[in-house]
Fold each of these.
Amino acid sequence: MRATGDTWPHMAGAAAQPVRRATVATLPAVKMLRRALVALSLAGTIAGLLRMRGKGGVPPQEGGWREVGVPPQ
């Protein structure tokens, strides 16, 4: 039994609707946004790992500021 106006002859009734693809995910702006988010996530992950790893160590115990000789005016 075939329904009138069916787009798919092997289906009948309410199930006879054409399959639509999502075109929103393929828009260039969405692709660019996705790539930007991936790049920011990757940069944040690398920065976090480097910050956690760090050099550590002990700050210098000697040295510091030295007096600068200013010529008299």
Note: The chain has a mean pLDDT of 75.
Amino acid sequence: MLGHNLGLHIHKFPSGKWGYVGSVPVSLHKIVLARQSDVLGCRAWEGDDGKLYAYKSPVFDTEQGARGFAESKGYQPLN
């Protein structure tokens, strides 16, 4: 589905950082060690090594950084 518009939008959060909202493809996320909130929110899974992992959406200092990262992965944000 690379290159298709999936409802991916770039948003400026109250923190001043930029990131993605809407239909965010998994390939734009990082895999990180799960926090307690990930486990309690049922967003974590157990890896082959027995550790718990979760997806984390990246944040950027600029809108251009967010757009460039998405485009480098083959996605075109709608805004």
Note: The first strand starts at residue 8 and ends at 12.
Amino acid sequence: MSASQTPSPCCFVPVPSVPANQRGLRRFVGGPRRSATTHHRRSIPLAGAVFDYLENVFAWRALAAFPEPATTNGLLGLASAAKNVSFWLAGVMLLVGLATLALRPLARRVLKLGAQSPFTDDAISQ
């Protein structure tokens, strides 16, 4: 392994390191950097799963204390509502993402055709 390569944390595959003076350029070469909101969007289905497990735990506690009311009955309804909201939100985000992926190539074609159109401002001014 040469001095310009550092070992990666997984499987010890050498990964080329980026010199300190080129680290700012790496952002533009590798594409746009993901914002913090992207990571929060990814965690919405995970939150739904957590609320689902909480709902199951509270339901088992209610079953175990059947003749008497369980102390977690109010939390059972809250966990159920939070689970439903987060799963619906995740489903809507999935549909919006799929629609975006499906419509992106169409938008590129329309923009390309618009740039080649004989009716652009440059063609009319001539």
Note: Residues 25-31 have pLDDT under 50 and may be disordered.
Amino acid sequence: MRLFAVTENFTNFKYKERLKNILLNGINAGITPIFSLLISLLIVRTYGPLLWGDFVQILLWLNIGAHFAAFGSKEFLLRKFSNDPSETSTLFKSSIEARFPIVIAISFGFIALPYFGLIRASWLFLWLFFRFIYQSYDVIIIWRKKFELSILVEASIGLVLLFALKFWQGNISSLNLIQCFALAEIAKALFMIALNYQEYFPSFKIIFDFTQLKESSLFFLIGFAGLLHSRVDQLLATHYLSSTSLAFYQILMSMLLLCQSIAHFILRPFVKNQYRLSEESINKIALQLLLIGGLLSPILVLTTGFILNYFYHFEITGEIIISGFIFIVPFFYSLAYIYSLYKMKVEKQVLWVNFAVIFLNILVLPFVFPLYGINGAIIFAASLQVIQAIVFRVLAKRAF
């Protein structure tokens, strides 16, 4: 009886810990977009949309630069850490050294472009450099499950930035915004260094280690292809839909993609274990995620429909509700097998699947949009998700 009680308590603790990590990871992933939204609303309402529009163009360049500076390091290092846990500090430092020349090259690119000017380019270099440092610690946060630490840093600096812009005296320019965001990034990076300096102090030697960059390049390309995958349909929609329909489609797809990302929130805290599991265990996780997705999706889709109808006054059809459900659920199932392909070091297959989906979108959507409109596009997107889930399951089975 006592043994049963101890076992039950341990099991309850284990599931509470898992739930806690999932919730904290979700908050950690969502806190930055929330502060970005609040700051954008503040700027638009206080100073007008023109200032924010000018700043967003610069922010786009910065984000592209940051994506190149990361160069797929997070997923690459998670796999490396799982295979060699005793070398996490060495691997972390060598990753920064290998990617540091990319930051320098991008910074020279900013300076060379006449669009920015020397002063803007200098601040962009500071912003990018400290973003590079700060985002390098993402893998450490996930590996050590220190989500509270990241949330504390993001919330503290985010609030300071928000209040600084709220009580700004006089006029504000896009350069002032760049300076504020760069200073916020510097503060976040310094906080993260200070909190991890004993084991994970970054090294900034300029070493052209093309071996590590080559190994992580597929993860970089997968991330880049994923970015294209999530945008190519919306780019095509601009040519075939009216302004109102386009706004509806872009908001709808953004919300559905956000619903899909919940699968990442659930699995990401346990990725390091995923790299050590057998095929049987991964199959069980995939089915568990499928069940979770199946239970959550009706709530998510109906909530999305309510928001679009009540706040945006868009009409929601039965086809969109059903297709939205089908769009979300297969991704929960796919994700476990995507990580299993990473585990087996055949991530190139994930890349080819992403490129195939992009190609199908480019090939089919120009016919779907004019003939069937948004309903047809959502049905097509949902169908692709089902096909992807089947393909990833087959590829994972072959890899094992």
Note: Residues 2-207 form one domain.
